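Revision sheet: structure tokens.
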Amino acid sequence: MPTGGPAFIPGLELSRRFYTDAVRPLLDEIAPGIPHSAARLGSGSEVLGYDTPRSADHEWGPRLQLFLHRRDVSRHAGRIRHFLSEHLPKTFHGHPTNFAPTGERTDADIRVMQATEGPVHHRVEITHISAWSTATLGFDPATGITPTDWLAAPTQRLAEVTAGAVFHDGLHELTSLRRALRWYPHDTWLHVLACQWQRISQEEAFVGRCGEVGDELGSTITAGRLTRDLMRLCLLMDRHYPPYTKWLGTAFNRTTAGHHLTPVLTAALSATDWRTREKHLCQAYEAIGSLHNQLGLTDHVDPTTRPYHSRPFQVLRAERFTEALLARIEDPAIKRLPLTGAIDQFADSTDLLGRVELTRAVYRATQKPRSD
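Predicted:
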């Protein structure tokens, strides 16, 4: 961990103080009476509450979003941005308020705190809520949220908008927007859960099949894929948007099942033979199947594992949970959706999931309704 710098303050708290003690007084001076909202949302480990001193090496520090009415952005954003650049303190709680290119990354937008004697290149983003939402999610929730909007938005992006903190909501829009996005509508949630169980059903027998032919590496890789899917399933069952890979384990540990299942899944991944690997996965299957029943979303589904048809592999037959969930969906349009699910249930490219215009295009291209 970095040493020798200022005492670590969690990024959300640092940004809250930065707004209250540094940005707000200057805003009252340069733009008195202009309504605004202020928050720290979007990308960054601090938004999800996962930052550590290590996070300060890029895009971490005193930063926030400042939202104005659409008409006020064109009228006032430029001079507010310039005024902050000229009058913000050079440091705040020992951290530079100036952000400069790292010199090491090819992405010019990635910056790091760096002292300056001149104007501050600050990270106070000045925008309006509609533009920011559309750039972040691919749609503007204020105009209504369709099933495509929900399912084409990566769960990491939904987490970034609904986590973080609102410091001031003078526009009286930001809090209600976040509330609307807090979780999927009921039928959409059932669909996403059904598709997650479907993923598990498609590969659960392969742990044993690979091992049976001596392919322990292939069996381990399959177990890793299943473990990831089980972790994401637990987050979805707990009504938490699964974050991207770096924070998946951290988020999973905070779920209802995390404390109990982390050692079980770890044992499955560290096993050196497929039978032991399968045994631990079956323990996890049964525990998560029982959690499903506790939610009361469907009729009871027997959570015990069983042989895979006539083959000597023990599985859950996870498609039974998929079928039970599909039976409870009432919206005909959602009921007909293919079992690929939300965008990050079937697409795994960082370059894709990082661009919402692509996620929406790919999602739409894959949504041929089911005929059954």
